[in-house]
Design a protein that fits this description.
65% of the residues lie in helices and 0% in strands. It is built from six helices and no strands.
């Protein structure tokens, strides 16, 4: 999936940027790569699209020095957990985003 490659690149770039304001710009640049079909899948709560968005939340946790970003990653993953309750076999795929987010905020 091309969208995952873009997300991975954005994550790497975000970690290389020294200031939080610039990190936010780099992190949100990933959203400009979202295709209409992927956006539609998110709107329809497609489980795989929801998992990808939860991994984006891990990227956002790199930008939590801004007050308005502090709770956003946790809220995105919490929403993903609720949406994935109908497919519990996928819940384990939220472990990595949760580990990254908790490393930045604490459990």
């Amino acid at each position: 999936m091309l969208i995952l490659k873009h997300l991975s690149r954005s994550y790497q770039k975000t970690r290389q940027v020294p200031t939080d304001g610039d990190r936010i710009s780099v992190a949100f640049s990933w959203t400009s790569s979202l295709s209409d079909p992927f956006t539609r899948l998110l709107y329809e709560h497609d489980p795989i699209a929801v998992l990808v968005l939860a991994h984006f939340a891990a990227l956002l946790s790199e930008c939590q020095h801004s007050w308005w970003m502090r709770e956003l990653p946790q809220r995105v993953v919490a929403a993903a957990q609720k949406l994935l309750m109908s497919t519990p076999e996928l819940l384990d795929y939220l472990d990595w985003p949760l580990q990254i987010i908790n490393a930045h905020t604490g459990p």
